[in-house]
Design a protein that fits this description.
single chain; six-stranded mixed β-sheet; about 15% strand; hydrolase; 8 helices; alpha/beta; glycolysis
Length: about 220
């Protein structure tokens, strides 16, 4: 798609209590993640707040023109801590995390034990188009992000835009900005980690498209 922006960055939210709870549940081999809040309300941990503040130092020399953030608390709080003073923070629900439907709060084991037929559906449809029962596919997330990019391009041509969002958003942006085909995107996703508070950036190249400059950097 044609995007008239100079630079696009994606800062994944800092470590959240949900990240910690999921890791503990997967390690323990239980079926359900012990988390009281709904996904939209999960807060950052103390480490997550430190990560967000450290990431903010990257933008001090050349700040983005605007920060557009997921409306989920962990992303919004990351944006507040990372955005340089004077840079507007704009929340947009289209950047929310992928909705997991009936599989919400289930571990890998929980999904396998409670919904064995879903693994078969996922293998048949492929990861990109497989839609979780009551939830979203990767394609559904792309369909949210595409018009947001188009609007920002029309409203702020030539701008530097920083998104503060979720792991899935990195791959949605690769698909839209770089034009990575679905099979290649799925292969990349299988081998790519998107750490908390990592930064991925794209710059306009000579062909009018975008090239990835930073890839999930945390240093």
């Amino acid at each position: 798609m044609k995007v008239d922006l100079e630079w696009v960055g994606l800062l994944r939210h800092g470590e959240s209590t949900g990240n910690v709870a999921r890791e503990a549940a997967e390690t323990a081999g239980v079926e359900v993640i012990d988390l009281a809040e709904r996904d939209a309300d999960v807060p950052l941990t103390a480490l997550g707040r430190d990560q967000a503040e450290a990431a903010g130092a990257l933008f001090a020399g050349r700040p983005p023109d605007v920060v557009v953030t997921s409306t989920y608390r962990r992303s919004w709080d990351t944006a507040r801590l990372a955005a340089p003073a004077g840079v507007a923070i704009v929340p947009d629900e289209r950047l929310r995390d992928r909705e997991l439907g009936v599989l919400d709060l289930l571990t890998t084991r929980g999904v396998r034990e409670r919904f064995p037929e879903e693994a078969r559906r996922k293998r048949r449809l492929g990861r990109f188009y497989y839609r979780l029962p009551g939830g979203e596919s990767w394609a559904d997330v792309v369909l949210r992000v595409r018009p947001l990019l188009a609007e920002l391009s029309a409203e702020r041509p030539g701008a530097r835009i920083l998104f503060c969002a979720h792991e899935m958003t990195v791959f949605a942006l690769r698909y839209l900005l770089e034009g990575v085909p679905e099979p290649d995107l799925m292969r990349a996703a299988a081998t790519t980690a998107v750490p908390n508070a990592s930064l991925t950036t794209w710059e306009r190249d000579g062909d009018g498209g975008f090239s990835m400059v930073r890839a999930q950097e945390t240093a």
